[in-house]
Write a structure and sequence with these properties.
With 220 residues, the protein is of the alpha/beta class. It folds into two domains: 149 residues, Rossmann fold (3-Layer(aba) Sandwich); 55 residues. It has nine helices and nine strands. Helix 6 links the parallel strand 4 and strand 5. The radius of gyration is 17 Å and the shape is globular. The two termini are 12 Å apart.
């Protein structure tokens, strides 16, 4: 069997492995569901870019709003189930795993998205935001990831050391502006149906078909 192209393959989630019919990410969907306002996402993103809030504060603003609304695990799972997998998602992930690659998530998504939509996932490591629930399934807290945006390369370097894989042998698949920091760090960056023109311009490869199976020819 031919040797695989990359030994460590990392994925973004929203817009890369899964998508919402509206094109929104999980944060927008939950803000709309529990606070009636998904426009705050763009405003808070701007605050973050301007240095007015930190990333943990941004997460706190969102999740505390859901807590104040009495959000439960079941309600959040219902919202997550509005998302659909990109075609070939499971088949591609398990084929990459079969070929011997280490797989990881490095994303600003929520852990409940992965555990709900990929219950038997093949990921060796998951770096994302976490939600905390009490014994009755009521949302009570959160753990903000330090590995989104500029933190994504930090996670990749950590995984590189953990699995003894050179960064040259690491690939990353994403779609948004928060994935741009991976360019020049991972040996290969694939822009999958990119929402960011800059990511599309700077990535090593661009996939414009909504089917993850196309990745196998590039990074498999």
């Amino acid at each position: 069997m031919a040797s695989r192209s990359f030994d460590l393959i990392c994925f973004d989630v929203d817009g890369t492995l899964v998508r919402h019919p509206s094109g929104k990410v999980i944060w927008e969907i939950l803000n709309r569901r529990f606070t009636g306002d998904d426009t705050v996402n763009a405003k808070r993103h701007r605050w973050y870019d301007e240095g007015k809030i930190t990333y943990p504060q941004w997460v706190e603003l969102d999740v505390q709003g859901w807590i104040d609304a009495g959000a439960t695990r079941n309600e959040i799972v219902d919202a997550v189930r509005e998302f659909e997998h990109f075609e070939g998602a499971h088949r591609t992930l398990f084929e990459l795993k079969r070929r011997g690659a280490r797989l990881a998530v490095i994303s600003g998504t929520l852990d409940i998205v992965i555990h709900t939509l990929f219950p038997e996932h093949p990921f060796d490591d998951i770096y994302c935001n976490r939600l905390l629930f009490d014994d009755d399934g009521v949302l009570t807290g959160w753990l903000a990831t330090p590995f989104d945006l500029e933190g994504k390369p930090v996670a990749l370097r950590e995984l590189s050391k953990k699995h003894a894989v050179s960064l040259v042998r690491a690939a990353f698949v994403g779609d948004g502006a928060n994935d741009i920091p991976m360019v020049g760090v991972a040996g290969c960056v694939v822009a999958f149906n990119p929402r960011s023109a800059e990511l599309e311009r700077r990535a090593n490869h661009v996939v414009r078909e909504p089917n993850l199976w196309y990745l196998l020819d590039l990074i498999g």
